[in-house]
Write a structure and sequence with these properties.
Helix content: 25-40%
Order of helices and strands: EEEHEEHEHHHHEHEHEEHHEEHH
Largest sheet: 8 strands, mixed
Strand content: 15-25%
Radius of gyration: 21 Å
Amino acid sequence: MLLSLDGIRIEYAARGGAVKAVDRGTFDVPAGQVVGLVGESGCGKTTLARSLTGVMPRTASITGGRMQFGSTDLVHATPAEWRDIRWRRIAFVPQSAMNALNPVHRVGDQIAEVLRVRGGVPSARARARIAELFDMVGLDPARQQDYPHQFSGGMRQRVGIAIALALDPALLIADEPVTALDVIVQRQVLDTLRDLQARLSLSVILVTHDISVVAYVCDRVVVMYAGQVVESGPVAEVLERPVHPYTMGLTNAFPDLARAADTLVPIGGYPPDLRDPPAGCRFAARCPFAVGACRDTDPPLVPVGPDHVAACLRAAEAATLREEAKEPERWAAISASVD
């Protein structure tokens, strides 16, 4: 296992009390696989992903848990260990490449800086390596001398991927890499990521709110809600046989050609305030299948199938709940009570 997270807790210091942004960060990243980290905005997925690079806001702190990357527990990594890991072994592709790239420097110079400063690569070798990287991500090497504004959005995202791959990392973290792109360019960038993962035997964590992206490109999926991992496992298993009602709700919002176009059903309501999260299951207020115990007991992640875990008190009834979850009126009723 390349990376194993167990019970990670991350808090932000804030007025009115600490925000418990991540309260149960538990999942694995096998070597050579793409793991999708999915959930709605504010669920903690970006906070959790960024913590794996050791770059977090000053107000954020890891308050518990373990992040085992190879032989190193990243929670207790020293500054020297982070210098060795960051970019060389773990690299990050930000959501908006236009904001991540310096607009007054040529893109080739920006990649060269990573190679020289972080990798100790001589200048002569750096230029050849940049040409390799451009070719690898589908860009014309002759465009090393262009500025960021001379590239389209998809091309800038490819530059961001090239920078992240500059030092041959083992793990690539891509934070919403296609959110701001049109669907055609999204597919091109995702195909590039998948091709690179296969050719370079990369492990990838793909952070997204779009479950269709997970279905298209990922081997495994980790579902987060209100700072907690509520389900994880192989993509086909989790999306075809979800156990947690939140995952069922997400799959209802995923277009299906075999289903009428007007049957996409939203999950009503909003996630809880993480400064004071509710007792019990955090999804209970929005869940059409919640029972009294759900509001008192915080369910742990338990095995529900081969390499498949979920945190739901009614996991044993999942087959029945999946069928009931397809009924729009069930979600409409809960929406009316919480919206």
